[in-house]
Design goal:
mainly alpha; 2 helices
């Protein structure tokens, strides 16, 4: 009976060693996987920081371009207004001098 118990104890011990080795292997693999995932996370966070900085620069550039576009639109409107005033003045001069029909003829040629 004692030999049988020793044999069972030896088998149990061997099974425990085998199971322990499996668990140690699994723990090592999990630790390696965790380290790899941590590195991937750090790389993703670094890329995110770069993307956020680029987004901020683009927003600043967009704001500058919008301001420039507004300034150009105002300038263009002023130019159109000035041309309209000159045209109205020229039309008034032509009407007062009786040359409106000549001006209309030139406009028809365009």
């Amino acid at each position: 009976m004692m030999a049988r118990k020793v044999t069972m104890d030896a088998r149990e011990a061997e099974e425990m060693r085998r199971r322990n080795a499996e668990l140690e292997r699994a723990a090592a693999e999990a630790a390696a996987r965790e380290a790899r995932l941590r590195q991937e996370l750090e790389a993703a966070l670094a890329r995110l920081a770069v993307a956020e900085e680029a987004e901020e620069r683009l927003c600043v550039q967009l704001g500058e371009l919008e301001a420039e576009a507004v300034a150009q639109a105002v300038e263009y409107q002023e130019h159109v207004r000035a041309l309209s005033e000159r045209l109205a003045f020229a039309d008034g001069v032509l009407r007062s001098s009786g040359l409106r029909s000549v001006a209309a003829g030139v406009a028809d040629m365009d």
